[in-house]
Amino acid sequence: MTRRCELTGKSVMTGNNVSHAKNRNRRRFLPNLNQVTLLSEILSQKLHFRISANALRTVEHRGGLDEFLIKESSDNLSQKALDVKKRVIKAKEQIASE
Q1: What residues contact residue 68 under an 8 Å CB cut-off, 6+ apart?
Q2: Within a domain: residue 8?
Q3: Do 24 and 13 touch, CB atoms closer than 8 A?
Q4: Tell me, what's the pLDDT at 88?
């Protein structure tokens, strides 16, 4: 399993550890990933995602999982999140047409 956020696409970055004597050693910066369960109000389902703590704050800020997926670019989303996004958009259109 890759160390990549399923919603924002945040992944591992590389850089240097720099000592006081300016010696540089390569290191990895890992994202703060958490296994969370988010509720989709439109689908009435609980969905499990592995997302970064920053993404969790963004989801709450945008008003929930459904609103986040509708607004988020498809380039950043994982395949699982893309499938959920399609289902949410389809369900929202059905609700609007009724």
Answers
A1: 7, 58, 59, 62
A2: no
A3: no
A4: 95
On whether residue 7 sits in a domain, the answer given is no
Number of domains in the chain: 1
pLDDT by 10-residue block (mean), the chain, 98 residues: 91 97 97 96 95 96 95 93 96 90
Q: Which CATH number belongs to the domain containing residue 25 in this structure?
A: 2.30.170.40
Spatial neighbors of 46 by CB under 8 A, at least 6 apart, are: 37, 38, 39, 40
Q: What is the pTM of this model?
A: 0.85
